[in-house]
Amino acid sequence: MTMVSLRGLCFLLTLFLGSFFGSVFMLGPVLPLMLLSPAWYRWVTDRIVATWLTLPVVRRSASWDTYFCHIKEPLQLLLFPEGTDLTENTRARSDEFAEKNGLPKYEYVLHPRTTGFTFIVDTLRKGDNLDAVHDITVAYPQNIPQTERHLLLGLFPREIHFHVRRFSAACLPSSAEQLQRWCQERWREKEQRLCAFYRSEPRRFDQPEARVPPCKSQLRVALIKAASLLYWSAFITLCCAGLWLWTPLRLYFLLMVIFFLCQQRVTGGVELMELACHRRWSGAQVKQD
């Protein structure tokens, strides 16, 4: 019989309440700025989220990539070309794709969807907003948490290993076909790298460990973790206390929840509202010119 872990329950509750209250009380007050200037709104929210130490989930689309290029806002775009998690079912579909296209079958990775990768690279490159592509391979020496259920049961990974390679934009192939082959080649390397990792003892990537700069020392990382835990614990506690004791805060909270629910149903998400405001502003500027 599986038992819920107290540590896992606290982690998920803190993550949910921090994201929920953070959206209402940290991002909510700056939403009107979106109507005045989408670029200013993006600049402010990016810095709030950076302080938040929580990455927003953004629905990727052609308009979104072009939007960042147009407002000249630097971005770090996290892309998973596989499109899904590695499971028995997804591995079977990946093997079927490999057979149809004459590609090798993989055990530790899925074949990437190269069309989306090449489109993003091409869009960012045309917008002069691509500095480099970082190829990141992640490995777990012990357990691999697949879903929130694993976290709820307290099955946290004891170690996480990262292998990072940087490819400058100038080193990337120019044509879409060459970019697709380049992406496929990186995945062949990932398969070989992970195969060697999980067959080695102790499990580690076969290369010298990167030197940790002073700004990323173990002590500094531990202090940041402690400060983050204290901040979010206090923030959640104050939000709950404020909602319990202060009627105006409850009214604001209720209005924001209604707003988020309505805009999700009407527009499909805050990020789509932001894109719509950007298109309106861009159209107005074109008419003025």
Automatic annotation (TrEMBL):
<keyword id="KW-1208">Phospholipid metabolism</keyword>
<keyword id="KW-0012">Acyltransferase</keyword>
<keyword id="KW-0443">Lipid metabolism</keyword>
<dbReference type="GO" id="GO:0005783">
    <property type="term" value="C:endoplasmic reticulum"/>
</dbReference>
<feature type="transmembrane region" description="Helical">
    <location>
        <begin position="229"/>
        <end position="246"/>
    </location>
</feature>
<feature type="transmembrane region" description="Helical">
    <location>
        <begin position="9"/>
        <end position="28"/>
    </location>
</feature>
<feature type="domain" description="Acyltransferase C-terminal">
    <location>
        <begin position="150"/>
        <end position="222"/>
    </location>
</feature>
<dbReference type="Pfam" id="PF16076">
    <property type="entry name" value="Acyltransf_C"/>
</dbReference>
<dbReference type="GO" id="GO:0016746">
    <property type="term" value="F:acyltransferase activity"/>
</dbReference>
<dbReference type="InterPro" id="IPR032098">
    <property type="entry name" value="Acyltransf_C"/>
</dbReference>
<keyword id="KW-0444">Lipid biosynthesis</keyword>
<keyword id="KW-0472">Membrane</keyword>
<comment type="similarity">
    <text>Belongs to the 1-acyl-sn-glycerol-3-phosphate acyltransferase family.</text>
</comment>
<keyword id="KW-1133">Transmembrane helix</keyword>
<dbReference type="GO" id="GO:0036149">
    <property type="term" value="P:phosphatidylinositol acyl-chain remodeling"/>
</dbReference>
<dbReference type="GO" id="GO:0008654">
    <property type="term" value="P:phospholipid biosynthetic process"/>
</dbReference>
<keyword id="KW-0812">Transmembrane</keyword>
<keyword id="KW-0808">Transferase</keyword>
<keyword id="KW-0594">Phospholipid biosynthesis</keyword>
<protein>
    <recommendedName>
        <fullName>Acyltransferase C-terminal domain-containing protein</fullName>
    </recommendedName>
</protein>
